[in-house]
Design brief:
The chain has about 400 residues and is of the alpha/beta class. It contains eleven helices and 14 strands.
């Protein structure tokens, strides 16, 4: 019934305002004016009737003319779009400016969820689209709507083209925090790495230790022979195994994953697997393609982690990075079970698009004396609960804001 009403709305030209105006005008012309001999309301009602009829005829003729013109045009759309970025497709079609009272709008029916803007260019209308969600498509359906400037009548028609279109997630911005965190071993450091850091730890002397590292002052006080030893994991040791978990509202997390693979934050010898992929990706290009295809797995997030891990050398599967959606769901239990089953040292990255609101200050003096605490959790209380749940399960969590690169 819903589809029937939608189709009827597109082919029936009169809108609700036109029906009300038409009924009122007909009542004036055929019922009220003849009885009262009112020479003011009668012509007003007659003009209203003629206006509705004229708009209906013009919209019908304009729709037929535009449909005939559009049918001869090619699809002209790029093979790759990116979410959140306005892109000109190169598709242009005649405007209805010469019809004076007609206007035309354009929208995408398939794929859905794209914002379409029309820009006038040399007597034509040029299409600019902004995608909101990633995916891969083989068909493009555009809907053209012709209406009068009074908002009385409207007609729509769809035109379909076969295409090979993929929409990739826009990469997150690499902020200074992320670069510094990588150089200092945060998030991506390998706790079991070689001892290459500063000599800040100590242990009991053992045969073969260099005498240069002996703490002679400690020996003089306590008669215990101790030696300095380097702190582990201060040398950059990026995790090269990463998994992307699809789920609700996961576009920003997909953008964070794209940043990590394209910026080399996962190392040159990366192994990346997104939900729905058949084999791990070993290059940034293949990883991005897997991110595009993962849009079909939002209802089955983390369902294939064990199958993906089975294709990775157990010697490399000691630590990993997990990109997860900001909305809790059944995927969380699957992720926790996967980490515990394989005894992994795992870290979690959550991507978001909105920045947290600043905590309210009670006075100007307090605002002057104390810097506001910046957080990404306050914008979405459910995100804070998700973070606490993951950390309670032993998974360290970082939240990455896609637009600014802020990491918290």
């Amino acid at each position: 019934m819903k589809r029937f009403l939608e189709r009827l709305r597109r082919v029936f030209p009169l809108r609700a305002g036109a029906l009300v105006l038409l009924a009122a005008a007909a009542a004036l012309v055929f019922l009220w004016a003849p009885k009262e001999a009112d020479f003011l309301l009668y012509p007003a009602g007659l003009v209203a009737l003629l206006l509705v009829v004229a708009c209906t005829v013009l919209v019908a003729l304009g729709t037929l003319w535009l449909r005939r013109a559009v049918k001869t045009l090619d699809v002209t759309v790029p093979e790759r779009l990116e979410t959140t970025r306005a892109t000109g497709t190169g598709f242009r079609f005649p405007s209805l400016g010469r019809w004076l009272v007609l206007d035309v709008t354009l929208s995408w029916v398939e794929p859905a969820g794209l914002e379409v803007r029309l820009e006038p260019l040399e007597g034509l209308l040029s299409e600019v689209v902004t995608a909101k969600a990633r995916g891969r498509y083989t068909r493009l359906v555009r809907r053209f709507t012709v209406e009068d400037v009074f908002g009385l009548t409207r007609l729509s028609f769809d035109v379909a083209w076969p295409v090979a279109l993929s929409i990739a997630p826009a990469s997150a911005k690499q902020g200074a925090q992320l670069a510094a965190g990588r150089s200092q071993g945060e998030t991506l450091a390998n706790p079991a790495g070689r001892a290459e850091g500063d000599l800040v730890e100590m242990r009991q002397y053992a045969y073969g230790d260099s005498m240069r590292h002996v703490l002679w002052k400690v020996y003089a006080r306590s008669r215990k022979l101790l030696v300095r030893m380097p702190e582990r994991a201060l040398a950059p040791g990026p995790v090269s195994v990463a998994f992307f978990v699809a789920g609700p509202d996961d576009e920003a997390s997909a953008g964070a994953a794209r940043l990590y693979v394209e910026a080399g934050l996962l190392g040159a010898d990366l192994l990346f697997t997104a939900d729905g992929s058949a084999a791990p990706a070993r290059s940034a290009r293949d990883a991005v393609e897997q991110l595009v295809d993962s849009s079909t797995q939002r209802e089955h997030g983390a369902g294939a982690l064990d199958a993906a891990a089975a294709q990775i050398d157990p010697g490399r599967l000691t630590s990993c990075l997990l990109f997860v959606p900001p909305v809790d769901g059944a995927w969380r239990q699957r992720v926790v079970g996967f980490v515990r089953k394989h005894s992994l040292s795992a870290s979690v990255i959550i991507g978001v698009d909105e920045v947290g609101e600043q905590p309210a200050r009670h006075s100007r003096l307090e605002s002057f004396l104390f810097q506001p605490e910046e957080t990404l959790d306050t914008a979405r209380p459910s995100l804070k609960k998700l973070r606490e749940a993951l950390e309670a399960d032993g998974l360290p969590v970082k939240v990455l804001h896609r637009t600014t690169g802020q990491l918290s």
